[in-house]
Structures are given as structure tokens and as C-alpha cells.
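Students often ask why inverse folding is considered easier than folding. One informal answer: many sequences map to the same fold, so there is more than one right answer. In these notes we will look at a single instance of the problem. The structure comes first.
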């Protein structure tokens, strides 16, 4: 079952896919600021809840281990009671010792198996929770990186356009005042007298 964070990311991706492209652009889109802000707001609100949920799953590891310890202790207590009963019967003393040792050995092995299984299960649950959160954060990081790259590309495109316009303006100004015309004006004025060029 997918989490609300996954649903929100899917909604954001679907929303972005359905946005109209900006006029004369293949990369820019027009977004409704209120709608995207609402999705981001809900994503921020849900993220702590998801993290708490996985922390709770991880904390259950201790409960699983305690349950395994309790079962192991109960088995050992039962084996000890059984051993004491066998020992109290003098006519079967040797058999009692053998059976008692066998019961204790089996109980200890079962207890160890329960503990090992509980530890493996708890570690598997923790690893799955950590992997899931890491996957979600990678996906969120990719979305943010793509948005940042898009914004950077748009900024560089704007700066490039402004530089082109500046170059055109400078070119037009040079055409208005060519260097050759300026030298001609200076020479004509020097022939006509000591007038100052204004």
C-alpha cells in the first residue's frame, strides 16, 4: 500500500505533466502557484508523520526481542520444573538426569532459535523501513534537482537573451557613429579655424 507521500509526489508529477507549456518554449510551463503550494504544504506536513511511523516500526524491534526472551525463559523454566520432578524420583535418578539434560538442551536450542529469528525479523523490518525512506528521499531529491536545473537553465537563457540585445544596441550605436565619420568631422573643423568641437 503506497503512503500519502508517494501519492503526493505522484500528484505533483501528474500536475506538472498536465501544465500548459509557456508560449514559444519546450521546457517552461505555466503553473498555478496556489495548487503547487498546497501540494508542497501537504508534503511538508506528511513527511514527519511518515518518519514517525517508520521509527515506531523500528522501535517494535525491542518488543519482538523481549517477547522472544520471555518465551525462551518460559521454556527454560518449564524444563527446570520438569528436571526437578525427575530428580525427585530416586528410582529413576539416572534417567532423570539424562532426560533433564536433553530437555534443557532442547529448550536452550529452541530459545536461541527464537531469539535468532526475532533478531533477523527485526533487522529485516528496520532495513526495509530505512531503504523505503532512502528511496523516498532520493525521489524527492531528484524532483528538487530537476526544478533547480530548470530554474538555472531559464536564468541562463534570460542572461543570454539580454546579452544579445546589448550587443545589438552597441552595434546600432556604432553604426550611428562610425569611426571614419568622426575623423572627417575633426579634420573639417581644424581647416575652418580654431573652433572648438562641441
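Output (designed amino acids):
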Amino acid at each position: 500500500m503506497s503512503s500519502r507521500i508517494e501519492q503526493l509526489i505522484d500528484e505533483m508529477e501528474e500536475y506538472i505533466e498536465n501544465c500548459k507549456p509557456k508560449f514559444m518554449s519546450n521546457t517552461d510551463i505555466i503553473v498555478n502557484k496556489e495548487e503547487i503550494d498546497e501540494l508542497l504544504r501537504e508534503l511538508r506536513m506528511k513527511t514527519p508523520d511518515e518518519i514517525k511511523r517508520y521509527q515506531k516500526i523500528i522501535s517494535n524491534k525491542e518488543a519482538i526481542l523481549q517477547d522472544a526472551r520471555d518465551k525462551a525463559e518460559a521454556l527454560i523454566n518449564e524444563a527446570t520444573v520438569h528436571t526437578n520432578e525427575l530428580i525427585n524420583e530416586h528410582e529413576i535418578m539416572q534417567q532423570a538426569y539424562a532426560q533433564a539434560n536433553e530437555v534443557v538442551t532442547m529448550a536452550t536450542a529452541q530459545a536461541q532459535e527464537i531469539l535468532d529469528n526475532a533478531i533477523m525479523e527485526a533487522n529485516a523490518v528496520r532495513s526495509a523501513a530505512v531503504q523505503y525512506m532512502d528511496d523516498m528521499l532520493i525521489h524527492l531529491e531528484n524532483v528538487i534537482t530537476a526544478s533547480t536545473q530548470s530554474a538555472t537553465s531559464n536564468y541562463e537563457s534570460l542572461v543570454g537573451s539580454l546579452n544579445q540585445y546589448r550587443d545589438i544596441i552597441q552595434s546600432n550605436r556604432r553604426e550611428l557613429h562610425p569611426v571614419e565619420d568622426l575623423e572627417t568631422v575633426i579634420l573639417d573643423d581644424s581647416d575652418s579655424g580654431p573652433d572648438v568641437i562641441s
